């Protein structure tokens, strides 16, 4: 029953239009308009040195979740050992800003990857993450402090 409620809540939250999003924000799966298109962005046809310059990288845990980007923060939902983790990094430097952990006992049935499957959603200073075990988490975007879980 709780899983069904969480799914309904995620469906509702996913339909809320994202207001006042900057062109470089990507606060949910498929971007601000949920269409996979980065508005007003020009892609380079050629790169100096033949490829783009790597700006930063960070080791991460397992999972299929992509990143969400807002307010110069990159947020990723991944798994380290027996914990699902929401991790935030400065988009321009990769500096770790915060990590919040949630115990997870998820055991995959089809593929071996035991990490989260859903891209976090950022809205009005909150980060929402839906785990592979059916738990919905809400944390503060600035601090990573857990606000609630269902």
The total tally of domains equals: 1
Outline type: globular
Counting helices, strands and paired strands, the structural category is: mainly beta
* CA-based gyration radius: 16 Å
Number of helices: 1
Strand arrangement, major sheet = 1-2-3-4
Which H/E pattern describes the elements? HEEEEEEEE
Helix coverage percent:
under 10%
Whole-number average pLDDT? 77
How many strand segments? 8
Query: In this structure, how is the largest beta sheet organized?
Result: 4 strands, antiparallel
Based on the structure given, which CATH architecture is correct? Beta Barrel
Tell me the fraction of residues in β-strands, as a range. Answer: 25-35%
Describe the structure.
- With 150 residues, this protein is mainly β.
- The chain has one domain (2-16, 60-149): Thrombin, subunit H, CATH 2.40.10.480.
- It is 9% helix and 30% strand.
- It is built from 1 helix and 8 strands.
- The chain has one helix at 2-15; strands spanning 67-70, 73-80, 83-90, 96-103, 121-123, 126-130, 136-140, 146-149.
- A 4-stranded antiparallel β-sheet has the order 1-2-3-4, with no helix packed on it. A 4-stranded antiparallel β-sheet has the order 5-6-7-8, with helices on one face.
- The chain starts with a helix and ends with a strand.
- Mean pLDDT is 77; it is low at 1-23.
């Amino acid at each position: 029953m709780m899983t069904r409620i969480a799914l309904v809540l995620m469906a509702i939250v996913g339909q809320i239009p994202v207001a006042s999003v900057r062109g470089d924000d990507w606060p949910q799966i498929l971007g601000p308009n949920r269409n996979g298109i980065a508005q007003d962005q020009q892609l380079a046809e050629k790169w100096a040195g033949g490829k783009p310059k790597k700006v930063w990288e960070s080791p991460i845990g397992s999972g299929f979740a992509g990143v969400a980007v807002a307010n110069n923060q990159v947020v990723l939902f991944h798994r380290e050992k027996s914990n699902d983790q929401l991790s935030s990094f400065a988009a321009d430097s990769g500096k770790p800003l915060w990590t919040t952990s949630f115990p997870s006992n998820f055991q995959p049935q089809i593929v071996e990857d035991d990490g989260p499957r859903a891209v976090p959603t950022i809205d009005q200073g909150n980060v929402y993450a839906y785990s592979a075990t059916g738990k919905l988490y809400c944390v503060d975007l600035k601090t990573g402090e857990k606000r609630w879980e269902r």
